[in-house]
């Protein structure tokens, strides 16, 4: 098993929950919470406080962050939640596990724990102690939630090693259907916990990241098998989201087609100002796709012209492109509406 895949497997069992809220100077009725469930793509630093080899707390991570220091983000700078927070008018979030998270800062944070929904409930109890039950319910009902589902279940589970337990248990189409049924339960549970605006992203072009090219591609082409998983999964996720919205009689869940968003610049990097979408800025081995990004790794001088920062994660600039499509993209990318439309509609209520 390659070192990079083994390391990423260590974080695949973690689910994140980001909570960002513009509360300091705004009355509760005008504030908006921001929750993000996900993996290392959205971690703002909980790996700093966990016993794990999957860490982003040392250089060159954070080289382009405003502080020019590592933050625990798997990025050279900002990640997707950071960009969305900016559009919500919120500051970037603290890790939930940070000792700095106390009092009012409990309303501006990230949670990344094993039993994610149980801890979401615990979070609500903690906030209730600060602002009361009625205000907490209002906060959660009016919150924006971003949930990223699917990627780790393929790359770090089904395809982690040849003849993995999951691949022996399920044919790929059956595994996709199984995941969709599990995520349906997760989204329904989020609704039961008060979620009313949920952005749901599927997988990116998983077979095209530098780590997969290094391990599976003799000619630099995306892994056809892993790409097949994404092609099966994402349309079924969107269909399931539509069914849930029909069930609830409202556009609770919004599908963000991050696979298409990223595929655009993976297939035609020059059109987006990148010189490559195959080679990671930071790494080693073929395509800089092996292992982790460390101080001993190859490091590109200009991160803005690389689509991928490390073997697995987009660069800050690529994160910005994806975030802009979430904000303003048409129905090719966002269904049934984009984030700007959501914010405009919700501002009238």
From TrEMBL:
Signal peptide (residue range): 1-20
Tree of life domain: Eukaryota
BP-aspect Gene Ontology terms: lipid catabolic process
Keyword terms: Hydrolase, Lipid degradation, Lipid metabolism, Signal
GO molecular function terms noted in the UniProt entry: hydrolase activity, acting on ester bonds
Family note: Belongs to the 'GDSL' lipolytic enzyme family.
Protein name: GDSL esterase/lipase
């Amino acid at each position: 098993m390659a070192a990079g895949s083994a390391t990423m497997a260590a974080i695949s069992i973690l689910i994140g929950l980001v909570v960002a809220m513009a509360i300091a100077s705004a009355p509760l009725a005008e504030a908006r919470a921001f929750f993000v469930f996900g993996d290392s793509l959205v971690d703002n630093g909980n790996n700093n406080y966990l016993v794990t080899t999957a860490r982003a707390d040392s250089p060159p991570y954070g080289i382009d962050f405003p502080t020019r220091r590592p933050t625990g983000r798997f990025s050279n700078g900002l990640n997707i939640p950071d960009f969305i927070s900016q559009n919500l008018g919120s500051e970037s979030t603290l890790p939930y596990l940070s000792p700095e998270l106390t009092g009012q800062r409990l309303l501006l944070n990230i949670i990344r724990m094993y039993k994610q929904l149980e801890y979401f409930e615990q979070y609500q109890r903690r906030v209730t102690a600060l602002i009361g039950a009625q205000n907490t319910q209002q906060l959660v009902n009016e919150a924006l939630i971003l949930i990223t589902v699917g990627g780790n279940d393929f790359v770090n589970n089904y395809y982690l090693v040849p003849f993995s337990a999951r691949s022996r248990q399920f044919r790929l189409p059956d595994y996709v259907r199984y995941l969709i049924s599990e995520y349906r339960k997760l989204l329904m549970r989020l609704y039961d916990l008060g979620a009313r605006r949920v952005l749901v992203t599927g997988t990116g072009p998983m077979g095209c990241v530098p780590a997969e090219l290094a391990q599976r591609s003799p000619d630099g082409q995306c892994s056809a098998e892993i790409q097949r998983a994404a092609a099966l999964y994402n349309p079924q996720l969107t269909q399931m989201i539509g069914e849930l919205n029909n069930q609830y009689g409202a556009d609770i869940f919004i599908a963000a087609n991050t696979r298409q968003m990223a595929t655009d610049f993976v297939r035609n990097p020059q059109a987006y100002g990148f010189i490559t979408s195959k080679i990671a800025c930071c790494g080693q081995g073929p395509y800089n796709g092996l292992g982790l990004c460390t101080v001993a790794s190859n490091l590109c001088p200009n991160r803005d012209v690389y689509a991928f920062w490390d073997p697995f994660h987009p660069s800050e600039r690529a994160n910005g492109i994806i975030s802009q499509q979430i904000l303003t993209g048409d129905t090719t990318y966002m269904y049934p509406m984009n984030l700007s439309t959501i914010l405009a509609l919700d501002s009238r209520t």
